[in-house]
Amino acid sequence: MNILRLASLLIFTFGAISFEALFVLWLRELRKQKAEWLDLANGAILFVSACWFLLNLGVELASFYPGIKFRWVNILLFTTAYLYPPLIVHVFYLDYRQVPSSSSVKEVREHLPPSQAWKWIIGALYMISFSLALVPPLVGFRILPDSRTLGSRLTVMLFTLFITAAALSVLLVLRSHHRAEDPTKRSGYRKWVLALLSLMILVFVPMLATSVGWIRYAQFIDLFSRSLPLYFIFASTYYHTRFAFFDIFIKGGSFFFATLVLLTTYFALAPPWLENLKPGWGKPWLYAITLLPLALALPWVYRKLAHWLDRAWLGRNFSKADALKYFLAGVQEATSEGELIKQAETRLANIFRASTQIALGSVDSLKDKGSASPLPYPARHRRVSQCQTVWGVPIRSHGEKIGVVQMGPRANDTPYLSEDVTQLMSLADVFSNMLENIRLQEKKQQQEKREQELMLHASRSELKALRAQINPHFLFNALNAIAGLIHQNPGRAEETVEQLAEVFRYTLTRSENEWVWLREEMEFVRSYLEVEQARFGERLQVKMQIEDGVKDIKIPAMIVQTLVENAIKHGIASVRGVGRVEVRAQKRGNSVQVDVLDNGPGLRRAEEADASPAEKSGGYGLKNVRDRLRGYFGDSAQLTLGRDASNLTVASVMMPAVTTAEPEAGA
What we know:
Helix content: 55-70%
Largest sheet: 5 strands, mixed
Number of helices: 23
Low-confidence stretches: 99-112, 178-185, 365-389, 605-618
Strand content: 5-15%
Mean pLDDT: 76
Strand order of the largest sheet: 5-7-8-10-9
Radius of gyration: 46 Å
């Protein structure tokens, strides 16, 4: 077997595998988007090329068995060849008549050939080629006579069609002024296409001259002409779809030739050695057993080869598993949406060695905000202009697009491959799940905050109702006490009236605010207790101790007054002898503690089995104090009831010392 024959086997085998892989990839992409005419034409080219290389491989294999005639393989090969010329022109026409995103319709009409004339030309090519493609099958079914003259004429027509298709494609490329966003890459592609089309004409002209008997061309020209689709697809995928080029042609091609070398080595060394063993009927089993380690090692060889290419040539520093672990380690530390985006952008930039931006919102809103446009998704990576500057994958939640991960150019102009797209899509799904968890947590926190605000609002409403209830009741008792003092002690009655006026002035003005200074609250409490002393007389003894350091601290309004009133109502009113009420306010670190003590029955009565829920909890006033403290300070404040060493009932409030700003609910 000479070198040319070996080269034919290698080229047609590699071409068949490559075009089959590209056609499968095209079918997958077709399911994700609405097909355009260019997509369908490209798919047809891929399918015809896959059939072309398979048939050529069949012809080469048939040459090893001269006694066996593969008549229909040659017939189908001839038929497939006739499908190429119109498809070539049609693909170039559709490719170069697309409207550039940066051009107006008027500019496009000026720079492109008349579309109607080209439609007629392409239609005529389809009609002629398809008509001639029917002739070989008709000869195969013996409907038409098989003659050397007919075969020669068909060959001349085929070469003429190829030359015509190449010349028309050159004309299309030269006359079109396609203004792409990336003119450098587009210019390189145009140069390669023009070079290949010109070479195609130079190859088929001598072949046409040979078919009419003028000259005789070299045998390698025939091999070159039959492998031309492979060279065109190299240029097209390299400039249009870098993903497929590197993953299919470079990585797949490297694996193909590595496997070929291993198998060739095996069949060169193993058969002579196995024949010496004289295995007899066990020969197939012996071949299978000795070939099994090689078959099992091939996946490992592919992984190692791909890993080496990724690191040494393509600059990938992370495997899929390592990239996922590295990404998760970063985003799991995020506690807010902004921090999650920042961590994800940093990790993705390190994984892909490219600038990364995550934009949340619908795709339409992102475009309206002036983000990078267009936003090409993996299924749209057909144009050079879409895969050299900015590209991205969508972020989805429950099937809807909620944002996009945008990737910039990679370091050293390293291309993005299909594996990169797949990996980025999986990491985008991980990001989407983490984003949903954080949003659920934030929603839960907001809901808890709203509940606290509602609780505080309810407490404020109860406070207002409490004021409306206390004032008439307190006023009635105070007026009765004043009436009794008018004849017995007019001076004391006058002082009580002044204190009563001060109490109501406070409740009508400053107590309408949610927050008051502690000194103001204590003055209000002092006036309130003096009015109560007028009512109880010598039966009530009052003592107030206030540290200077706590006077300029803000507290919720009427907190202390409610405790004092509870001590009078549930404590002193039940004492037959002298009743004692003490009010203390002191600093405890960063908190302030207010204690109200009385010598009434207090907790002993609340612990009785027949006590009401209000009495057990210290009354509705104390419940209101608890709710307000929880609403303002959360767990940082508390109200406790107990007894001290002197057997006095103690209602104690501990809350943060607020000196300036008033905290929001739940702070």
